[in-house]
Specification:
The protein is mainly alpha-helical and 186 residues long. The chain is built from 7 helices and 3 strands; from the N terminus they run ββααααβααα. It has one domain. The longest helix is centred in the middle third of the chain and has 31 residues, at 79-109. It is globular and about 50 Å long.
Length: 186
């Protein structure tokens, strides 16, 4: 990834970053994959209109796809409790994750020069969306319990090396946004 400065505070309630074309394309590609993946889990043809209106889903089992399962995990170890909780919360969680991803996508698509300016809500959307992308990449990289050693030693020609570089870059980007959020206004 190109060396950007990441996010910086700009005034009392604004956070800015500039992305080069490659960085924009990487983030857009990944966020669009998250949007697609989450859309696969949407209830189609919900039989109870009231349940659909209040967000109760017909899904009571975790997703089979391991990435989607990481994004929409069980809340309880007990299968019965987990299924009941999922029915009442998955739709809202999925919608929130889709909103974060769409926020990132719309902002990047509307900034031809790569300049991104976020308000506080936009910053929270980006933090959530970047976290979801990193969760998905972490599953693909088989990262468990902060076990990065095997990834640090990947051969230069290993395709996972590039994925790990993006994963690391996105973590750094999140860190710069968190730092900007915590910076005192000068």
């Amino acid at each position: 990834m190109a060396a950007t400065e990441g996010f910086k505070r700009h005034g009392a309630h604004s956070y800015v970053a500039t992305f080069d074309e490659t960085e924009k394309e990487v983030i857009l590609n990944l966020v669009e994959q998250i949007i697609e993946l989450l859309a696969e889990r949407i209830d189609h043809g919900h039989e109870d209109p009231l349940a659909a209106m209040v967000g109760i889903t017909s899904h009571d089992s975790p997703p089979e796809d391991e990435v989607l399962h990481r994004l929409l995990p069980n809340a309880y170890a007990d299968d019965v409790d987990a299924a009941e909780f999922r029915r009442y919360t998955e739709s809202t969680l999925r919608g929130k994750k889709q909103a974060h991803a769409m926020s990132i996508r719309m902002l990047l698509k509307s900034s031809p020069e790569g300049d991104v300016e976020l308000d506080h809500q936009g910053a929270n959307d980006w933090l959530g969306g970047l976290n979801d992308i990193r969760l998905a990449l972490g599953v693909r990289l088989k990262i468990e319990n902060n076990n990065y050693e095997h990834l640090e030693l990947l051969a230069p020609d290993d395709p996972l090396r590039g994925v790990y570089a993006v994963y690391s870059w996105l973590g750094w980007l999140q860190e710069t946004l968190l730092s900007a959020l915590m910076d005192e206004v000068e």
